[in-house]
DNA sequence: CTGTTAGCGCTTTCAC
DNA sequence: GTGAAAGCGCTAACAG
């Protein structure tokens, strides 16, 4: 263990090559003869050489962090379990790349926010969530090629399949008057679940019962109340968010409605505590960590920008 | 909007001073006459100058990211809601500093891991969680002065007060045979709750009933089972974690034990969904986001290293 | 395939 | 108080 950390120059000297050559083999780019490659690698090993990430990034002109920009109108969106999970997953996934992650909310009207992001030379890439269809196609030029999205058009969960499976299960269990607590209409990812729901409901020749939610449990409470008032004979409530479903569960319990006997309930996402709720929530489970990591890597150009991840139904007590 | 971003040299030229002077006023350090300060500021404003964070960090020799190192023996600790919340909070709090955060687990035996951290020149600071008493006092020298802790000895929640308030409430409600699901014994932060519990139990002249947990809901399930078996007349179970309390709740429900009629239950932390559980969990609420942000700023030397945050009991349905 | 020569953009001694 | 100059540690043209 040396007191002074070894630099590239030390490695090069020891290997008997120029710094440029050492750089080429150590950074993996550029040609190098087998001989010098071996010499450099050996020298680096002996000296315990660790490249200086900041110097490297400055020379390359690439940034050192990824910002996770969450587009939403609620100020507390950054406390949302999905957001915190995704953030942590990225922070863990990018650690080996020597890249840190920052979390920031941007408003629904976010042109200026995106310009800010594009102007920040410290940024390696940005991961965007909460976008609508239009947003991805009109990113500032400085962000093109180094932006990835979580949700529709990016690393996404196959929500159509997941919600479809849940609804099919409800129908198979004899439920017919199924209501849906959907996502906000400005969000691109809200569409597919509504589409499957509509399709299946039409196929069953039943009228659709859709209420808009926002992924919070508060909204789940009010939505359930609205559904109970408006369509008292509802026998199942599907939500596109577990938090919302837990809110629904609460309202139903307070109203003396038995779950699942009177009304079945399903969530979406399988947050860590969905199974710990009582009655345990039936929902669809998603590899949120993988999705977030995929988006982060995609933003860095290390993975495909578009990927669909499975949504697997998990049936517990509520449906 | 210029195509080429303005650099320090541009600002200096426009202000009619040397780059050195411009640097002094813009970076806030070093002397500068009122006149040149004004000129530089004006020029910077007109040019829309934004310092290059990476170049700045390289020149200063400081790193560009903070790693949140969570010490635990469970591989899935990084999925823990507390960890994800804290990570996200830091990622949001450090965004304005142009510093990203990375998340990494380190083992209980973590000397080597800490050396790795100390050797990484890309790191601005590290935030440590899951430490025991000894760890903080024997950090590698390269980490001293740029490490902060979450939990005992760092930015901590006043768990003694919080658990004390919860237990006092239980006693006031007539509970007497109270069991505690504590934290793991290797963790420094596990001690205070056990201490208050022991003290209050002794004062009530009752025997202590302590089971060790690990903050998971799985452990809550097994702990509840153990308590029911060993001390069947238990009339209250206090946990130092909400996830654990939810596990307790599940086991009690499965065993046909009514909550809170037969057994009262309390948690700790007030995770976002504690209130959405049914019956809604009584617990103590903590400013986790503030705690994490304080630790992160402390690590960067921007805040006091030690701070105690309030633990406020919130009584819902289970106690 | 390799070495030389410039930078990347900012900070910081060190004289003046 | 200010400027000139020397880096921070590495990468990337460009010749050879």
TrEMBL record, chains A, B:
**Superkingdom, taxonomy of origin:** Bacteria
Q: Name one Pfam family in it.
A: Peripla_BP_3
Q: Where is the HTH lacI-type domain?
A: 6-60
Query: Quick one: signal sequence residues?
Result: none
SUPFAM superfamilies recorded for this chain?
A: lambda repressor-like DNA-binding domains (SSF47413), Periplasmic binding protein-like I (SSF53822)
Q: Which CDD domains match?
A: HTH_LacI (cd01392)
Q: What keywords is this UniProt entry annotated with?
A: DNA-binding, Transcription, Transcription regulation
GO molecular function list: DNA-binding transcription factor activity; transcription cis-regulatory region binding
Q: Which PANTHER family match?
A: LACI-RELATED TRANSCRIPTIONAL REPRESSOR, TRANSCRIPTIONAL REGULATORY PROTEIN
What is the official name of this protein in its record?
Answer: Transcriptional regulator, LacI family
Organism whose genome encodes this protein:
Actinoplanes regularis
């Amino acid at each position: 263990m040396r007191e002074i950390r070894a630099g590239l120059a030390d490695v090069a000297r020891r290997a008997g090559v120029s710094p440029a050559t050492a750089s080429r083999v150590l950074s993996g780019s550029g040609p190098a003869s087998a001989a010098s490659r071996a010499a450099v690698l050996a020298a680096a090993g002996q000296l315990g050489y660790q490249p200086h990430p900041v110097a490297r990034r400055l020379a390359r002109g690439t940034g050192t962090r990824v910002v996770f920009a969450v587009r939403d109108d609620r100020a507390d969106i950054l406390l949302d379990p999905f957001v915190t999970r995704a953030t942590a997953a990225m922070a863990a996934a990018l650690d080996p790349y020597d890249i840190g992650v920052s979390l920031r909310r941007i408003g629904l009207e976010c042109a200026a926010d995106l310009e800010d992001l594009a102007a920040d030379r410290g940024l390696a890439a940005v991961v965007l969530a909460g976008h609508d269809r239009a947003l991805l196609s009109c990113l500032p030029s400085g962000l093109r090629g180094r932006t990835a999205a979580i949700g529709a058009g990016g690393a996404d969960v196959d929500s159509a399949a997941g919600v479809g499976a849940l609804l099919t299960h409800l129908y198979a269990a004899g439920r017919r008057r199924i209501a849906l607590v959907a996502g906000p209409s400005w969000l691109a990812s809200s569409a597919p679940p509504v589409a499957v729901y509509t399709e299946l409901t039409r196929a069953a020749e039943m009228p659709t019962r859709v209420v808009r939610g926002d992924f919070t449990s508060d909204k789940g409470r009010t939505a359930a109340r609205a559904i109970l008032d408006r369509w008292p004979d509802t026998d199942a409530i599907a939500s596109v968010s577990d938090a919302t479903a837990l809110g629904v569960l609460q309202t139903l319990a307070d109203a003396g409605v038995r779950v699942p006997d009177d009304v079945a309930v399903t969530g979406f996402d399988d947050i860590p505590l969905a199974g710990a709720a009582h009655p345990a929530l039936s929902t669809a489970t998603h590899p949120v960590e993988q999705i977030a990591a995929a988006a982060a890597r995609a933003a860095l150009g290390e993975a495909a920008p578009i990927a669909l991840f499975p949504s697997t139904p998990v049936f517990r007590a509520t449906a």
